[in-house]
Structures are given as structure tokens and as C-alpha cells.
From TrEMBL:
PROSITE patterns according to UniProt: WD_REPEATS_2 (PS50082), WD_REPEATS_REGION (PS50294)
Domain of life of the native organism: Eukaryota
Name of the protein this chain belongs to: Protein JINGUBANG-like
Protein species of origin: Nelumbo nucifera
InterPro entries with a match to the protein in the record: JINGUBANG-like (IPR045182), WD40/YVTN_repeat-like_dom_sf (IPR015943), WD40_PAC1 (IPR020472), WD40_repeat_dom_sf (IPR036322), WD40_rpt (IPR001680)
Keywords: Repeat, WD repeat
WD repeat start-end pairs: 252-292, 297-329, 343-372
Length: 443
């Protein structure tokens, strides 16, 4: 009876204008045709992330968190664990320290790094900090109806921000390091080019059509590669834009449920992850203009929230609400990926991943950040756990500070409204990092 009362309380949450339905991640044998549904503003948010109303009690929040933890026990992927080595066996010494704390106005939606600037999106506002001394440089935002910022990407001196209102906004970085709004995707020119012909419209719901170049729901992820911008949305579509003229080139119905993440390899292969528990791989052969489906990766038992690729795209990491990080390795030159195992240790949903050299950094709704390292036998170990956030860790960026000193910096953004900057020292890092790893990575 207590479980029924919890579900009833959650289902009574008011639906926002952009709310999306998501089912409780139960295993197949526990799902019935009449199973209750949750009305969440974010398909990848766990029960413990639902903001309580002014009349909700602390005991209800604790009950929801306990329910989510118990349900996730039923949905762990049936793949072997890759955590068979310890930091001692790698002969490394690891230490970490929180060197700075940045506190914008509200919960952190995403982080990104471009050059020597750190971008922190909180709500609809983006604050910009210097990476040298973490001084505040600029703040900019969309209009009052743009909604929260879900993702950031950069190309040719421009910043692209993905918003809850289904738009992508383009900002020009001025010489004084200020950001000026220059366009909104799709652009007016692109709309005018297509609005006359009926074939350019697609049905998004009953009695409602849109131009195919428009997203119909929140834009949840952005990636930039080789002059192209890739956007994914809760409307289940992947779109491709040309960075030079901001024109939409392609739209693909990529998943059966909301898409939460996108990653693009150096050769242009696109990976998308969705609430339908699938990862899909897209590519273009020589001479083709459109992306076609190469493979569908299915091992997770709940919504997939985050993706990260190694620099050579030979290994893909995926994090899901089932609390596990799956490791996929390329088997041949045809982009086929096979799961080799799982990284386990987080006690909550995996919300963000970032890879740098042979290190993987993961953030979770359990409020911690874990740093993993791969050994010589393809096994992994958790080097350290960064603790200090009071709410789920929603976004990460990582960069190498100094190859010679063996230190990396990790910035973690949380729903508690705080961005922590961690200095991590690893004694034997010198032999594993190369000069190419001074490039900043963000997923």
C-alpha cells in the first residue's frame, strides 16, 4: 500500500507545457499494461530529482528516493563487471582537492569549455568564467520564454545553445569576450525557403504540423564535427545543420522515445541515446547525402542519458538510469560495436560522462563524481570518488592541466546550483597522457 501511495503522489505533479511522459523503469516481468506513468519535465531525471512542491514533506522525498533505488535493482544489465583491478595494482597514487566553487543563481543544466573559457548554464542564463582564475567574464541568456539551456557547442567563433523551447540560439563571441545573439535555428531565411511547399511539413501530433527543419520539443543535445552541427531532441529526431550558413540539411526520426544524448566520432559516425533504452549508430557512405542506420545497441534496461567516445572512437561509453556504465568496443571497420562489460559503483542514475585519454569521468544522481582508468588488460578501476555536491551531478567537463605534472581538472555542475572545480593528481599520469590530450573534451 505504501508503494501505491508514493506513485499516486508523483503522478499528481502538474504537467508543464513541455512535459514528457516517462514510465517507471521496471523489468519486463514487473510491467503491466496498466502500469502507472510519471509526468516528468526531463525524461532522464530520476525520481530523486523531482522538485518537491511547497506542501511536500521531506519524508515523501526520502520515500521517492528509496523507491527509485529499489526499482533500479531490478534493471541492472546482465553483463559482466570490468572492475577487476585496484589503484594499488596500477601502482598509482591519487589525490584530489576542490579548488574553486562557482554558484550561479539556480541549478546547473550543463557545462562546456571553449578555449580558456568555462560556460555554466543555469536555467536560461549562461555565465562565462575564466579558466585561469575563475573570474566572472560575461552572462547572457535567451528571452523569457526560451526555457532552460540543455546543451552547448562551439564552432567557428560562435556558441550554440540548445533550449527547452525547441530552439537553438547562436551567439557571436566579440573581441571583448562578450556574447551577442546573431541567429535562432531554424533561421528566418531557412523557413521562408521551405514554408510554401506542403511536402516540407510533417505531422507532430494530431491536427498539428511543423516544418521538418523545426524541432517539436526540447533540444536535449548538441555536437559539432567537421563543420556540421548535430542536434537531438525529445521529439525523437536527429537533425544536421551546416555551421557556415546555419541551414538545416537533414532530419531523421532516430528513436521511439525522447533522445537524451548525441556523440560524433572523428570520421562523422553519429551515436544517439534515448529513453527507449537504445543507442543507435548513424553514418554516411561515400556519395550519400543522408545518414542511415548502421546499428542498434541494446543492453541497457532503462533510459540512456549520456555518451562518451574515446579520441579514436574505438570505445563508446554509455550511462543510464540503471546505474551502470556500459563499455562498447568496435569489433571491425564496419562500425559494429559490442558490449564488453559494465562499470558499476554509482548508486544512482548516470547523468553525464566525459572521456580524456584513458580516463573516464562519470556523474550521477547519487551526488558523486567517479574517475575511472583503464588498465592494460582492458579492465577498469575506480581511482577516486569526488564527493561534496548536495544534489545530482548533471554535467561534467574535464581537461588536462599539465602533462608533465600529471594533473587533470574536473568541473562538475549539480542541481544544487554549484559548480565545483576539482584538481586531481595521479602519480603515473605522465606515461599515459600525450600532447594531444591538452585538448578540452565535452560531452
Amino acid at each position: 500500500m505504501k508503494v501505491i501511495s508514493w506513485i499516486g503522489t508523483i503522478s499528481a505533479l502538474p504537467r508543464s507545457s513541455t512535459a514528457t511522459e516517462a514510465t517507471i523503469p521496471l523489468s519486463n516481468e514487473h510491467i503491466q499494461s496498466s502500469s502507472p506513468k510519471l509526468l516528468l519535465s526531463d525524461p532522464c531525471c530520476s525520481l530523486s530529482e523531482i522538485p518537491s512542491s511547497s506542501t511536500a514533506s521531506q519524508s515523501q522525498d526520502t520515500s521517492c528516493s528509496t523507491l527509485q533505488s529499489n526499482l533500479s535493482l531490478l534493471t541492472l544489465p546482465s553483463v559482466p563487471s570490468l572492475q577487476k583491478i585496484s589503484p594499488e595494482s596500477l601502482q598509482v597514487s591519487v589525490s584530489h582537492l576542490c579548488v574553486s566553487s562557482l554558484k550561479p543563481n539556480t541549478c546547473i543544466g550543463c557545462l562546456a569549455v571553449s578555449g580558456d573559457l568555462l560556460y555554466v548554464a543555469s536555467g536560461s542564463e549562461i555565465n562565462v568564467y575564466s579558466l585561469t582564475n575563475y573570474a566572472h567574464i560575461d552572462a547572457f541568456n535567451g528571452n523569457s520564454s526560451s526555457g532552460s539551456v540543455k546543451s552547448l557547442a562551439f564552432s567557428e567563433g560562435k556558441a550554440f545553445t540548445a533550449h527547452q523551447d525547441s530552439k537553438i540560439r547562436v551567439w557571436q563571441l566579440t573581441p571583448t569576450k562578450r556574447h551577442q545573439h546573431v541567429a535562432t535555428l531554424p533561421t528566418v531565411k531557412d523557413r521562408v525557403r521551405r514554408f510554401v511547399l506542403p511536402k516540407n511539413y510533417v505531422r507532430v501530433r494530431r491536427h498539428k504540423k511543423r516544418l521538418w527543419i523545426e524541432h517539436a520539443d526540447a533540444v536535449s543535445g548538441l555536437a559539432v564535427r567537421n563543420g556540421l552541427i548535430y542536434s537531438v531532441s525529445w521529439d525523437k529526431c536527429l537533425k544536421v545543420w551546416r555551421a557556415s550558413d546555419l541551414r538545416c540539411l537533414e532530419s531523421v526520426k532516430a528513436h521511439e522515445d525522447a533522445i537524451n544524448a548525441v556523440a560524433v566520432s572523428v570520421d562523422g559516425t553519429v551515436y544517439t541515446a534515448g529513453a527507449d533504452r537504445r543507442i543507435r549508430v548513424w553514418g554516411r557512405t561515400s556519395g550519400e547525402r543522408r545518414h542511415t542506420l548502421i546499428a542498434t545497441l541494446e543492453k541497457h534496461k532503462s533510459a540512456v542519458n549520456a555518451l562518451a567516445l574515446t579520441s579514436d572512437a574505438s570505445v563508446l561509453f554509455s550511462g543510464a538510469c540503471d546505474r551502470s556504465i556500459l563499455v562498447w568496443e568496435r569489433e571491425d571497420s564496419a562500425h559494429h560495436m559490442a558490449v564488453t562489460g559494465a562499470l558499476r559503483g554509482h548508486t544512482g542514475a548516470i547523468l553525464c560522462l566525459v572521456n580524456i585519454s584513458d580516463f573516464l569521468v562519470s556523474g550521477s544522481s547519487d551526488r558523486t563524481v567517479r574517475i575511472w582508468r583503464r588498465g592494460r588488460d582492458s579492465r577498469f578501476c575506480c581511482l577516486t570518488v569526488l564527493e561534496g555536491h548536495e544534489r545530482p551531478v548533471k554535467s561534467l567537463v574535464a581537461l588536462s592541466d599539465s602533462v608533465s605534472s600529471g594533473s587533470i581538472s574536473v568541473c562538475s555542475g549539480s542541481l544544487d546550483g554549484e559548480t565545483k572545480v576539482w584538481q586531481v593528481l595521479i602519480s603515473n599520469l605522465r606515461s599515459s597522457l600525450s600532447s594531444s590530450d591538452t585538448v578540452r573534451w565535452k560531452f
